[in-house]
Design goal:
Blueprint lengths: L5 H4 L17 H10 L2 E4 L11 E4 L2 H8 L5 E2 L30 H10 L4 H6 L1 H18 L1 E3 H6 L1 H11 L6 H12 L10 H8 L1 H16 L5 H7 L12 H32 L1 H9 L4 H12 L4 E6 L3 E3 L2 E3 L4 E5 H4 L34 H18 L3 E3 L4 E2 L8 E3 L1 E4 L2
Length: about 425
């Protein structure tokens, strides 16, 4: 079996040691990965979940090859594994959570969720988003110094996902605290304890979700959670989602809606503060908002990696992959692939074309992509209207995670 060794690619750099991701995504290491071996076998270390090695995929073309072939690279399991999933450790959630399902059940459930995310529904949200962002911007402007992450980037998506899922807004910050305890590994040495962390730190969130689902079952509203709770799939058995699937659906949609857009917004703002010429371009030419938003998503890649499991023996970039092997593709690296993106390490709000994979690709393309784009449009427009510029007022605090490229605090100062 052809297995380039980790030492041949990134030296002693361990892709499962979270210390290596504590200051943001380590782009220099992945540039070497792309250049020396687009695909290689990462031997297990003391930090590696399940004590198993995995195939690491760093380039755009090979990542697309994995994403486009769900029959060979499963989101659920493969090669006799009881569990698989989309995170490095095998997860019992595989098969019960939408992003860890394969077709046909994945597509049936996805079609239900899409009923609450139609283009007409998303477009109708814009006036409400503009109403919600206005007081956030006004308060930040009055203070002069503020945390862009918590005061603007996190607050708007949090309010919106609560409204869409029928979560009382008074509970939104508690919900976000539960989500963060899962997304940021904090002082943990590795991600091996992901499921234990989920059970320990998010048990209250699941209890909250179960109570809310029971309420929607008895008293449905116009929200997306009510739609999913009462939806029937006449061509499936069972025809309705189980309690486990509903709870997993709620946790996934809330986390994705509240966390990923805020990380893109904060990361995009950091990029424009570091490249103020791009702030000026976007401020002076709002026709660049469309390409600018795509560049923000390419640049930030809030979901750093996803995992699949090989269902059969196969080959990828001249490497022999065995059924049951874990295959990890790094979207944050694919989005900086020099073979696809000219001057890939430059933030360019006018970049076109921009075939990034920040929203995934294929069967598991992000369901909330249109909503995320709208939220970014509203946030960026409001910030550009309100401020001549922003500058950092302190160090950036990153989430300590190789799964989510997240900013936890971004102190800024208004330029006057």
């Amino acid at each position: 079996m052809t297995r380039p060794a980790v030492s041949d690619v990134v030296g002693a750099f361990d892709l499962t040691d979270l210390d290596n991701f504590a200051n943001g995504f380590p782009h220099e290491a992945f540039a070497r990965h792309r250049h020396l071996a687009p695909v290689y076998w990462h031997e297990p270390t003391e930090h590696t979940p399940d004590g198993e090695g995995f195939w690491s995929v760093a380039t755009h073309a090979e990542s697309l090859e994995v994403m486009r072939d769900p029959s060979t690279y499963s989101s659920e399991r493969g090669g006799g594994r009881k569990f698989g999933g989309t995170i490095l450790p095998d997860s019992p959630a595989a098969g019960n959570t939408l992003n860890m399902m394969d077709d046909p059940r994945h597509q049936r459930i996805r079609s239900i969720v899409q009923r609450g995310l139609t283009p007409k529904t998303i477009a109708a949200l814009e006036p409400d988003l503009e109403r919600r962002i206005a007081p956030l911007i006004a308060a930040a402007r009055d203070r002069g110094e503020f945390d862009f992450l918590s005061d603007i980037a996190a607050e708007l998506p949090l309010q919106v996902i609560c409204a869409l899922l029928g979560v009382p807004e008074t509970d939104r910050h508690q919900m976000m605290a539960w989500v963060e305890s899962v997304f940021d590994f904090g002082d943990a040495r590795s991600a091996t304890s992901y499921d234990a962390s989920l059970a320990t730190n998010a048990s209250d969130m699941f209890a909250f979700a179960n109570d809310l689902i029971a309420t929607k079952r008895a008293h449905p509203g116009a929200d997306m959670l009510s739609i999913v709770v009462h939806a029937r799939m006449d061509d499936a058995e069972p025809p309705q989602l189980s309690d486990t699937e509903l709870t997993s659906f709620f946790a996934l949609l809330f986390a994705a809606g509240a966390d990923t857009t805020r990380n893109a917004a904060a990361g995009g703002m950091l990029a424009m503060m570091e490249a103020p010429d791009q702030w000026v371009r976007l401020r002076d030419d709002r026709s660049l908002l469309k390409t600018g938003i795509e560049e923000v998503v390419r640049w930030t890649a809030p979901a750093a990696y996803n995992r699949r499991t090989a269902t059969i023996d196969t080959r990828l970039c001249e490497c022999d992959i065995a059924a049951g092997d874990k295959v990890v593709f790094w979207e944050a690296s694919a989005n900086r692939d020099e073979r696809v993106f000219g001057d890939s390490m430059r933030f360019d709000v006018g970049r076109d074309p921009n075939p990034h994979v920040g929203f995934g690709h294929g069967a598991h393309h992000c369901l909330g992509a249109a909503l995320a784009r709208l939220e970014l449009k509203v946030m960026l427009s409001a910030v550009l209207d309100a401020f001549d510029g922003l500058e950092q007022a302190g160090p950036v605090e990153w989430a300590r995670s190789n799964k989510h490229t997240g900013i936890r605090h971004l102190p800024v100062r208004v330029l006057r």
